[in-house]
Specification:
4 domains, 20% strand, 25 helices, Leucine-rich Repeat Variant, alpha+beta, ligand-gated ion channel, 31 strands, 36% helix, Trefoil (Acidic Fibroblast Growth Factor, subunit A)
Length: 915
Amino acid sequence: MAFKVEVSESRCSYLHVGDIVSFFAEGSGTSVSGFISTLGLVDDRVVVKPDEGDLDNPPAKFRDSLFKIVPMHRYSAQEQFRKATATARSMPDVVILQKLQAAADQERSRSDEETTKQMGTPVLYHNTVIQLVHVKSNKYLTVQKRLPALVERRAMRISLDNQGSEAAWFILTPVYKLRSPGDSVVIGDKVILMPVNAQQPFHVSEYSLPDHPNCKEVNAGECSSWKISLFMDNKEDNPEVLKGGDVVRLFHSEQEKFLTCDKHEGSLRVFLRTSGRIKRTDATSSKAMWEVEVVNHDPCRSGAGHWNNLYRFKHLATGHYLAAEVDHDSTLDPVRQKLKGQMDTVYHLTVDDNNTETWLTIFELEATTIQQTDQTVPKNSYVRLRHVRTKSWVHATSIPIDKDAEKPVMHKVGAAPTREDKEAFALMAVPPQEVRDLDFANDAAKAIKTIATKIESGQQATANEKKYIIRLIEDLIFFVIGKETSQSTQRPSALTEEGEPDRDRQKLVREQEVLKEIFHLLRIPLKVQPTFQMADLADKRYDAMHYLFCLCYRVIQHSQSNYRKNQEEIANKYLSLMQSQIGFEVRAEDTIAALVRNNSKLLEKHIHKKEIQTFVDLLRKSREKKFLTYIGDLCVSKGMAIQRVQAMVCEVVLKDSNADVLMTLSVENEEIVLHWTEMGVAHSKSQMQLADGAKTGNEDDTKNLDYFTAQLQLFCNMCFNRQYLAILKIKEMLPIDIVLQCTENKALPFSLRAGFSHIMQCVHLDINPQETVNPVGYSRLWSQIPDSTTSVSEYSPWLETGMSGSSFMHEVGAALVSSKGSSGTSLECQMPPDEDDAPMSPTNTEGSDDVLRDPAQCRREKFKQTKHKEAEKARILKTMEFVEQYLALPSVWSFEDKEQNLLTYEVMMTSSSMT
């Protein structure tokens, strides 16, 4: 098979719309030379890096310097819509906004159509207005004529913008007079980049950026010339064809594993990663992305890949190239023994280092079907890899790299002179947005590490660096929840913005060590003491640092939400650090509570009396109800009681020294009074006074009622699943008659009545001598339906059936009351264990039944059971009457009230417990 190296045709070709190019400043003497580049996806500044490559040796991150030529887009309607939304009042004119949005969308679609229509048309000097789209970030190169440059203040600022505007319109003018207006722009010409609106040419400054000494600012002011280098012709930019710059995953079709590069024992290793997923192709990782390079005589040129081209594969996350070297591992492998033939030398895949020759990183692709050598490579084809220098074919092995692991998942990739048909890889294209997500996470981790290391070394961060890192952490929050904002839109508060975290991005921030660097930032106060301590964050001088810490914990909280692997990594590596920062109002306690919530494994492993007491101390200090909720969440995980943690919570919360954090009830003059302690001062107030005060908007009364409601929920979680350490004490604190009286009291808030109803179930009903019986269920409560959208406040089935809320609940209540003992979970009375009734020994129970027992003893036991049943029925008789009355009266239902929905739900659960 004959192979070729792609020959550049840039010397005789013209520039067209759709071409991907780079711009190189050829300085002479003291002038600056280098490509127009960027600082990654975490910074919108445009720079030139003189020390990082030239036309003969492009930069390692050449993607930062690539721009696509697109025709001029229109922006008038989009600008009007942006201005209207930015200046809209609290009650904007919806009709006008809808019309403006429709016009903006129509304008955007017309621009896209125009781009497609003009693709491939020549670019003319002076006449063709173009825009430059940064390939890596998909942002527009823009001149902000109202903002001064950061270094040369007399010049205009140039940056990247998400949405584009008329400030992103440019024309190309020739440097030399041999080109005239209207001539086609020739690849390799020196040109001047002239903004249409600003009318100030692009200029590369001789001054460095203060925070990046190796970067020279690009602004609009004086004139600099730029040489155009073609990276890819628009004709080759076919989405169905493998091209230079494409990012792929290499999936071994036989082993069903991805070719991956990751650190193991401090060094980078290349391997096939085993996945536990049912569908192996779903086991995507950011560490399995490889950028394709088509080898060309012109190092700045790439193009479409053909079967007879040479290729290099760059690991996207680390920047290292795939290579092969001699393997000195003597571990026997049947595949390797079969394919190595008579040769003693065996090879394995690795990545290059600084001393690796370029030839060691070059591969050939062979098709698995009959193909002509000059045909292009389809993007999603199967290929075999052949290493050019060693003339060996890549193959899988069963040799584990992580030999010490219980279940090895990293298997070495070998290379042998004999080709095996089944050793083929599927080229799986990675979507551009996924590549940008990886770039952003990777760049963010490096930026955070740079600033954290500087502060850690004792240097003072500049004001610009503080603003930059705060902005970056805010961007990370929006990134994880999928709500990125552009520069031209108003940013919501990063600390309060809610959203469903994107699972792939949660995985990214872990794999690309963003979380590791965030904890590096949080660890700074512990390392620079006594210069700076956590307590200093309360000082106004450190407001920026305090806000930064809150943002960091917000990122952590979103990153672990409903993601088990992230939760385990954070808990195993950083929980002690987070615990040391509890109580300084940086959201450490909120994050820990969210981390262990509904994760029984973490609760069992990491929660001890010390952590529970810490929450109690915070509760005593702030009297915020959220800490009651956090403590309650420790007791239960996904509807199951964590008995070990539950017992510790009972022991800590109910001990005498912590009695001041709990509110207590008493009956005085036939009125229920609440007692509590705040700042060492005892307070008391009747429930009715608190309820009346809350209705009139008294903040203190509202806060106290909410606090007591949260305390009731804590008690329920402590008693859940018959935890008698709590039940025996709470039953004394909240007798059944008081609980029933509060549940019936219509003057109390619905949420508080619902709390008492829940207490009735957990403390007084679901206990001995009751026994849970689960008959065949022909129906189920809607709360048992595994639907994330189902909630007490949103459930309204009559909206579909046409029934009114009152008639619907009347029928449900009547059905529940009339069906006692016929369906649902029931609590049957049985005799409690007495000291006199010791269990029978195993020898006495073998083969025994009621026929062999003493008839007199059977009669005595039956009499006891009947007596206990009657006593139990008398004890809960009033509760049964209340439930029947509540569910049977149609006049009480108002399903527009969400809090009443909660009460109704608890009453129905109480009814279910007694049926």
